[in-house]
Amino acid sequence: LLLDILGVLALGDPGPLEDVVIDRYYIPKICLREAQMGDFIRYHYNGTFKDGKKFDSSYDRGATVAGVVGVGRLITGMDRGLQGMCVNERRHLIVPPHLGYGSIGVAGLIPPDATLYFDVVMLDIWNKNDKLQVTTLSKPERCNRTVENSDFVQYHYNGTLLDGTPFDSSYSKGSTYDTYVGTGWLIKGMDQGLLGMCAGEKRSIIIPPFLAYGEKGYGTVIPPQASLVFSVLLVDFHNPKDGVFLEHLEVPESCKRRAVTGDFVRYHYNGTLMDGTLFDSSYSRNQTYNTYIGKGYIIPGMDQGLQGVCVGEQRRVVVPPHLGYGENGAGDKIPGSAVLIFDVHIIDFHNPADPVEIETVFRPEGCNVTTRNRDFVRYHYNCSLLDGTRLFSSHDYEKPQEVTLGANKVIEGLNSGLLDMCVGEKRVLIIPPHLGHGESGARGVPGSAVLRFEVELISMEEGVPEGYLFIWHGDPPANLYEQMDLNKDGEIPADEFSTFIKTQVAEGKGRLMPSSDPEKVITDMFQNQDRNQDGKITPEELKLKSDEDQEKIHEEL
After folding, report:
1. Main localisation, per the record (predicted)?
2. Annotated catalytic, 25?
């Protein structure tokens, strides 16, 4: 093929005063640099005579040729023919005898007055005055910190020679290259080229040989005096001295209390690596993560990072590996020595010693009568989580909620919050889970949830002591049975009993246990007295609750 080309060009032997003939038969589209006098170059070549007979070849020796161009260390024809070449450019050079080995030749190899034909490909060009070439290919919008000396970095790379020949790649190994920067563990050029990078940044780093492997090269893949090109993606970095880094993304205007050691916190989170890879999310499980902080139940970085949070706050917690999962990582999603980024949203928190928090929003003037245990109350309420999630409301029904206080009919915290209220009073109650629905929660209420109630007392009726359905305002009649036996027939059926009790209530002599169904209360009273359940009360069966209690005490004694 070489002979055919030369034949087409009709080039004969140059005369003794001919200059070198250059045929640039392949020029790369991109030529960032041309070889100049004094540059160090590296190239391959085949050398032949006119008849095609080969007299030398760098390919046959399995090693490129390296040297300085234009300073007389090569035959003059090569010195001239190599100048102006680009990396990956290919040339045919015809070197006349007087620019080659002249009338002497090379004994046993090149005869006198021989015209020499070279097929050359340029592989590398550099100069002792060259500097590291760093080009940023892409950079994330957010970059809170950049690489500094002594940082531990994790990065992917593709490494090639200047002509594009690959020599190594972290991608082919399936793992990042992990090392310290600026401590001599890397070649100088890479130590310098990684400085100032952001996590997620991509760079092209071109390293001249004297900042790489120099005259010795490296094994069989990097020849001596080779410039190296690294395409680098920085995945992760940290410093062993790093603490937890906090970024307050959103803090509520009103923050009455901040979480401290020993508090139980419920929060949602997304956990990512520094390159944005999601490794875990509470949102995907549709369930908050619930834990005590400062007690060692979670990684140290999160124990520290959740200190001082407010309810409703959104916070970013950046955890270095020595405060996370260390060199070993966790499972198949968190690699060793990984920096972890948690974007957290605090739903609520409490302390196991917390009481009910009561805020009086409105209290009527001249309020002298307040609620006590055993009182029957009617109230309206709205119930929500601390993040504003609506749970229940009495306004969704036709009438207010009704309950006898102290009868274990509502959660303990709500019962406490309804005590000492006036009719018309409005309150906001914050109820910790141990006074609410506990760790298990209830239908519609998450486990360990702090509840917020807005309550308004609509009405109240004075109650009776526990265990009583009716109490006398004074002493009961001495001849109670005779007065209750309205028709004087010696027995008291249900209708007679009901009429008597209603009369006592109407005349203010006693009162029933407050209830939305007084008839049921009277029925229960009758059934309690009709001990043989025959539908009537006899003198032997009728007993006051106080007398029954005394009999029980006597039996126990």
Report:
1. endoplasmic reticulum
2. no
